[in-house]
Amino acid sequence: MHVLVSGGGIGGLTTALALHAAGIRATVLERTREIRPLGVGINLQPHAVRELTELGFADELAAIGVATAEMVWVDRSGNRLHHEDRGTARGYHWPQYSVHRGELQMMLLAAVRERLGPEAVRTGTVFEGVRQSSDGVRVRATVRETGEAVDIAGDLLVGADGLHSAVRAGLHPDEGPLRWSGTMMWRGVTETDAFLTGRTMIHADAGRGARLIAYPIRPHAAGQGRSLTNWVCMVSVADPGPLDEAAGWNRAGRLDDVLPHFADWEIDWLDVPGMLTGGGDVLEYPMVDRDPLPSWGDGRVTLLGDAAHPMYPVGANGASQAIVDARVLAYELAAQEDPVAALRTYEDKRRAATSAVVLANRRMDRSKPKNAKNPDDPAGRNDAPAEGIYTKIANTYRNSAGDDVAELNARASLHPPIRKGAPA
What we know:
Largest sheet: 8 strands, mixed
Radius of gyration: 22 Å
Distance between the termini: 14 Å
Structural class: alpha/beta
Helix content: 25-40%
Number of helices: 12
Number of strands: 19
Low-confidence stretches: 370-385, 420-424
């Protein structure tokens, strides 16, 4: 079997590695001429770290990521509102890692080229369309360097080409624009003094439509009492609705647009205005997602990662869900004789699970408390501890997203069985 994977991001590269582990040939088609370490920080939840560990990346992840120990909610003065242990501190068998997205992608890319061969990733190859037959697919693509049209044959096609997926657009041409939450996000990376445990993720809320998430992403800096801090500023700027403009992770933003919302923040253990002004490039991105689809693919074509289920980043779960997608896809293709039936089983398993996460992220975003008042007492006669409000929000999210410690720790391995006669 030969699987074509459109997209050389985290989801696409993990798919190639998972398929290879199952003895299935894979070729990644990536539109950019050169895959470079772009982006800022992301989080890998324990369920994703488990899958990457089973693919042999335990040591590499520990070398490039910070094992997040806790999540702390604070106000704009640094007063603690809520605390949660994360990763192994919470009882998982695997850590939660905060890592630079580009470094993770380069780690996966190097592994694909080493394990599958240097020709397994075809860069500068732009997906244009796909034709199916009873026994395979033929992808139409353009070579960016020459403009040459090429026809690439395979047995299956996996669209792992991100938020603006061309594969998804071909499968669902009438879907319409992205859904915008009305929140604009500005992202950056700045070296700061280490704060709190040195492995803490903070969520700071000013209670006026401005929020900040910050966490360390490089273990070398942490060992020196410093922090390469990834920060995300979220500001409500409009009513929710369709987004007609382009949205991309690497769109340049302006510090002048975000700094006024945070210039008067005073946290004694983290200089928020200094962090925003002391970094390099600022990226701007609207918080968007899409409604869950009733089906992802058709026949020998399916979707994976952001192409299948773009979601708000508030649950720090997007990349993690793509990694789990890849492992389930490889498992089903290795376990079933009929590849088309295997794709449908994969979709049935992952579509319900990821739809729950998409909707849980929306609820999580809407549930941010404006103050510490009891929600059952709108007149504000009785103050409820903020700890209780945040605990309720966090527990509701975990239940909706299937983020249960005992269940994950007890779950059987997804390591795919090797097909009889397939190369190990």
